[in-house]
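Session log. Operator J.P. requested a structure for one protein chain; no other inputs attached. Running the standard single-chain path with token output.
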Amino acid sequence: MKAVVAREYGPIENLDYADWPEPNATGRTVVIEAEAIGVNYPDGLLVQGLYQAKPPTPFVPGMEMAGRVSAVGEAVTKFKVGDRVVSFTPLGAYAEKIGVDESVVIKLPDNVSGADACALICGYGTSHHALKQRAQIKPGETLVVLGAAGTTGLAAIQIGKIMGAKVIAVASTPEKREVAKAAGADITLGYENLRETLKEATGGKGVDVGYDPVGGDMFDVLARSMAWNGRLLVIGFTSGKIPQFPVNLALVKGFSVVGVFWGTFTAKEPEAHEENMHELIDWLVAGKLKPVIEGIYPLAEAKDVLRRIHDRAVAGKLILKP
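Structure written below.
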């Protein structure tokens, strides 16, 4: 089968579209034939050796695959050949097929597209976990979303609205702010003079829940804009700069800084993760949320698609297809 292979750690452009061994269906393994493959910012960090995990090379990157079950191991109890499913996996999704443990596979209704299903995994999964378990956001609270035109940002907007929050979306360009507005944001702002515009937008009260996948200087701005009993969610650092937090701000402003690491959550709390995924799928089927899919591209173009994400030239989810 064909796959996208990282032969060694290095630039995204070094990824190789090449032959790769097909997975075997043994034990609890479910083999999925790809219908859609999700592309995520951490995939690019991983192949460059900049992510928390550093698997031995060569490896196939990719964390999300939706498709049909083509084979099952003898110990598999939940799935059969022909089922439509979606799966999260640390590695291996940039391929025509993948073999994963049945514990990380979710069955899909036939009316959910593979592209939408992939978007629900890391992007919506992260935002849902962040707002539900970590922030425990309440109706009427103000949610500020940085990086609002990215996959996780758009997910946070939509999920925040479902949960009853007032959503302020922050994005770098007018075009991206229009995408955030279309996703349901009540107010859209740029990064210029953000502290002042947030003060005005919250009527001086401050931010109840801050959602920050950006880091860098914007984390400091958001920290200084938090309300009493606020929760500042640390999602990631797409700016490339990990901020240093002045802890006296948490003391005098009475807010919490809360880490969000969705991958670890799925491993440590698998039952809660599965409940979250079923809730997201139910919302999707009911029309309460709709992933923004910017484009679907051939698997062979994976490195170009991944480079676009790292160049921040994307508003929405990008999908690969064999």
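Operator note: The radius of gyration is 20 Å.
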